Amino acid sequence: MADVVLGGYFSIGGVDRSSFCESWEPSWELEIQESRPFNSNFVKKDAGLENHSFTATFVDDTSYTLVQALDALVGTKAAFELRYDDAAVGATNPKWTGSCVVPRTTPPATQGGAARFSVTFQVDGAATMATA
Amino acid sequence: MAKVYTAVQAFYAEFDISGDGNSFEPSREQEVLESRPFNSAFVKKDAGIVNDSATLGGYLSFEDPGTAFMSNIGTKVPVSVCVDANPAAEQDKAYLVYGLHAFPGGPAEQGALRTFNLNLDADDYMGIGRVLGNGQKTATGNTAAGWSGGAVPAGGSIVAAVHCTTATTGTVDIIIQSAATGDSGFASPTTRLTFTQITTTDISEWQRATSAAGITDTLWRAKWTGASTPDHTFCVTFAIV
Questions:
Q1: H and E: helices and strands count for chain A
Q2: Dihedral through CA B236, CA B122, CA A48, CA A129, nearest 10?
Q3: Which domain holds residue A100?
Q4: Which of B10, B57, B101, B208 is 20 to 30 A from B67, comparing alpha carbons?
Q5: B143-155 b/e with 16+ CB inside 10 Å = b?
Q6: How far is B31 from B43, CA to CA, in rounded Å?
Q7: What is the domain-level CATH number for residue A86?
Q8: ipTM (interface pTM)
């Protein structure tokens, strides 16, 4: 069944920043290790390391609350939590948590445009899914 | 008349994801090796090896199999896509992939559908074959009419997948058998693949075998043997590679 996102959840540094967030997109990548042994005419594949990151798009407020909050976390590894739905975590509404490196944000200022910017957060180790 | 896909049944591991999936794109890349010898004014080309993959897309939910998408990262997962009907009938065309994938979940974007895009890197080969059994089975049985899939060439392989989406009671043992041309009743079958016995846990399994000498039998079927009041819903797909 198709589900529409109507209220996702994003927190960074232990603070719910959902009200600034328009979207987040996970990139839980898996490195594929290919081999081409003599006994096969097809490429064989095995799992290598996982590399997790996610990109979020925000719109800041007139006080630059979010940019300032993110700036305070620059250079640190901050806890994050992501959900497709801001309802309680459960079997049909998992959360992803972990620790990510917070980069310096440089929001563009475009005449007539909202204070919208995207940030890619590199996850240190795994983004762990949980349903409780 | 053009083929229009209006009813596809897709299985991911032990899940029937027909209600979630909406696209399937298999890819078979044949590597082409070019040479430019002195004695030719044209580029010469030879076949290299094959790199198979497939993309399965749809709508993401965390009922099933969204959670499994996450737990299966880094694990080879059997996927069968039956493109002729839903539910698929015996001898409908099926694509079989045994592949690796990363997390396929799309973005959480306010006001947008939640989607997934599963990029499967096939280990070895993708099979293009047939459905040999599908649906709820409460007794011993087999494919009603053996599939005339043809012989297996020397060095060729056979692959099969079982997706048991509901395992309620009892046990079932599933095997793949072959028979010689003309033995449509499978009077003298040969067992080629044997799956792990299914009990009361939903499960999926991929089996393959390679034959150095090839197999001359041309008829293929699945046979399931139930015991202890069996009640299982599964799909068996098979291909010769």
A1: 1, 8
A2: -50
A3: 9-33+44-130
A4: B208
A5: beebbebebbeee
A6: 15
A7: 2.40.30
A8: 0.79
Please answer whether residues B177 and B192 qualify as being in contact, where contact means their C-beta atoms are separated by less than 8 angstroms: yes
Report, in angstroms and rounded to the nearest whole number, the Rg of chain A calculated over CA atoms: 18
Q: Which residue has the tokens 């067992």?
A: B191
Instruction: With residue B133 as reference, give the H or E element that holds it.
Output: strand B127-137
Q: pTM of the full predicted structure? A: 0.88
Residues 6+ apart with CB under 8 A from B65: B12, B13, B15, B17, B20
Is A6 within 8 Å of B111 when comparing Cβ atoms?
Answer: yes
Q: Nearest by CB to B109, which of A22, A29, A43?
A: A22
CA-based nearest distance A99→chain B, Å: 18
Asked if the Cβ–Cβ distance from A4 to B113 is below 8 Å, we say yes
Inside any domain, residue A2: no
With an 8 Å Cβ cutoff, are B50 and A129 in contact? no
Interchain CB contact of A131 with B (< 8 Å): yes
Q: How many CA atoms lie within 13 A of A113 on its CB side?
A: 10
- According to DSSP, residue B123 is labeled S
Q: Is residue A1 part of a domain?
A: no
Nearest CA distance, A112 vs chain B (angstrom): 22
Confidence of residue A1 (pLDDT cuts 50, 70, 90): low
**With a CB-CB cutoff of 8 Å, which residues 21-80 of chain A face chain B?**
22-26, 28-30, 32, 36, 40-47, 50
List, for residues B46-58, the tens digit of each pLDDT value.
999 999 999 999 9
Q: Per the structure, how many domains does chain A have?
A: 1
The ranges assigned to domains in chain B are: 9-32+45-240
Q: What is the pLDDT of residues A89-107, one digit of tens each?
A: 999 899 999 999 999 888 8
Contact present, B81 and B95 (Cβ < 8 Å): yes
* Separation CA A79–CA A17 (nearest Å): 12
With an 8 Å Cβ cutoff, are A24 and B107 in contact? yes
Distance from CA of B113 to the nearest CA of A (A): 4
Residue A86 lies in a domain: yes
